[in-house]
Amino acid sequence: MSGFQYSLSQIAEMIGSYAQLIGQVSDGALAEVEFDTRQIHDPAVTLFLAIKGDNRDGHRFLQQAFDKGVRHFLLSEAERLPAGACGILVGDTVAALQAFAKGHRDRFHACTVVAITGSNGKTTVKEWLVTLLGDRFSVHKSPGSYNSQIGVPLSLLGIEAHHEVAIIEAGISKKGEMARLERIIRPDIGILTHFGDAHAEGFASPAEKLQEKLQLFQHTKLLLADAEDASVFDALHAFTERHPQEFLSLGGNADCTHSLSDIHTDASGSSAILHAARTALSLVLPVPGEAALSNAALAVIAARRIGLRFTDDEYGDVQERLSLLRPVSMRMEMITDNPELTIINDAYNADLSSVKNALSLLETARYHAARTLILTDIDHQGPAQERVQKAILDMAVMALGADNIIVIGPIFDLMLRDVPWIASYPSTDAFIEAFDYERFRNRTVLLKGARRFELDRLIPYLSRRATATWFKVNMNALAHNYRQLRARVPKATRTMAMVKAFAYGSGSWEIAQAVVREGVDELAVAYTSEGIMLRTRGIHVPIMVMNADLQSIAQLFRFDLVPEVYNLDFLRSYIAEGRLQGKTSFPVHIKVDTGMGRLGFDWQSAAELIAFLKAEPMVLVQSVLSHLASADALDQDAFTHLQAGRFQHFYAAVVAAVSFETLPLRHLCNTAGMLRFPEYALDMVRLGIGLYGIPPFEEANIDLQEIGSIHTVVTQVHGYAAGTPIGYGCSESRDYPTRIATLPIGYADGIRRSLSNGKGHFLIRGQRAPVIGRVCMDMLMLDVTHVTGVQAGDEVVLMGGQGSDFISVKEIARLCETISYEILTGISQRVRRVYVRE
Q: CA-CA distance, 112 to 506, in Å (whole number)?
């Protein structure tokens, strides 16, 4: 984060008397705080923060930051400061960061600080409020969803002298946290978004959680709240009596100052009338859902009170600005369907912080080594516009080089008119007119800019995929699932992620890269070719090959892949090939069959393997594993315990007889096993279907989110007379006039033919529409007679959510009389994958 210019001594002074300067202190100005070495862009002006948490100790990365050029540190363990560096020694680095941020925030009395909290909608209201304020104010905002005890102070440090408004998110997970945030934010205006059940784990009751959130508004001049819930309104009313301030409320209560009426919502958008004491405003949004209307209303009310003067009348041109609002969850997506290039679409907004984060993503989330940034003018910077854009451009040039940057927008174009080494275009249309695909071949291309420039229009030119069907993979859900599963096993237990079969249909490299970033220790694939693909795309963690064949042994050594060995014949061939290549050690995983009846050494016959390992001490047994056949079957627990006993017997016999320098890891549990039998988690667990959001059994008590959803669009809508047969074999008709929507997706894409003739239903405009006739190879038809307004181009969700409805993988599997695994792995690779990250 940036926005300040302080020496190390000045920062120590703001932190307080307990801050001790150590090392040879330099008085050079610092302008960045980072706690992730991957985010370091300008080490000379960076203060590296060593955070100690439950699962991470930032002191481990001090030397790595030093090696990248950082010389200034905020830390709590003096002995770990790298030689030649200097730092501020404190007892608690997070508390020190907060004190620093408070000192910085207190210097900007003229800036109106808006603080937003709530259970749902914080980031949406923040982003939409920024959109409404547009270019009429110089606005600073929390990047992404920086709303934690660390994120909030980092957000505050981004405030600069030219900012007229700062919009800061604040989130909490337990008691006592909000009071700490309130002391450093000191907001002038407070916004409470929808209050609900989210993040309730750290509180005894909803009332306790609400009171904790309200601590943020102790000293605000204005409190604006979603008070649709009567109990929330009563609590807010009582709070404002104890802490006098102006109170504006949105809800159906007669005492609320604002309300919504004439609410209409469908898949294409939503509308309502916003009522205040003397005005009524029509809200029309290109975003569906009543929640979107409430969030938009809060943003409109806040924009008006901040000081936005709409033309013509009190709310004049607000509708034009509302048309720019978009779902915040669409902020970043990675598109990998063109093998010649990778697209990172982060064209939701652009400011100094978000560009910096995007450049870090470009560095780590890429397959093609060459990189190109397409960057637009940015909004809401006021008189500092050119200076801020120059700072962003300088940062991008430092990271990528001038030849790899393209800028779009009249301000950049004017700034760079006499700078021939950076390509500049006054508008997106001008860039499209001059578009040359060859310039982007074999590159990772980052689209970063303000939404009004519509950089997503460039995607068809770059992707070169005309298909209207896509499989959307939610990378936030993937990260959530990993953390949920990781929390179920001891910290010392390692994790291995299963990315075989194209990562259960979700994309091997993309999923592997994401889970490695989350902390997965090892990966597993079925075949050597899958491992080779991961290695060639920059995946470096250990990879186990579960079913390596004799023909691929040479490639195992070449690409540093470790086979799962299940008989001595393969092991002999593996060693022989290794020796031919001059290898002197032979890493393996030993597979034992304890009752699956598939692959493995017989659990009762360890003697021959033991003799072999004694004779070949250069065989490095990294792990011994087995597979539970029925961990997800509640009526077969006795067999699971039997398998576990057999496994332990085999392992004990091997380690007792063979002198290992390091004992092999033990792993037995898949997702179902680790959830139902945590006592068998042992040294490592293998995370499979649970990573992808599918509970392995009905009774699984864990919060998993499906990561994948299938989308397409309507190609054509036709009306037919009653009795008209539809599709192959004239297999179905209706006894009433029908409207039939044709979709460009069929069984060649993974939509099962068994969903024909009304068995399957898909979502369009938020409603379920049945399949009519037989599913074809490349198309299918829906009966949309009962769905109002369906037209060509409408989005259809075949798996996933739309509106308030959701079609799960398990539901589809049940209809097709199969299992979720088969549905996921059956999604054709011709369906383009789009990876979305908030």
A: 44
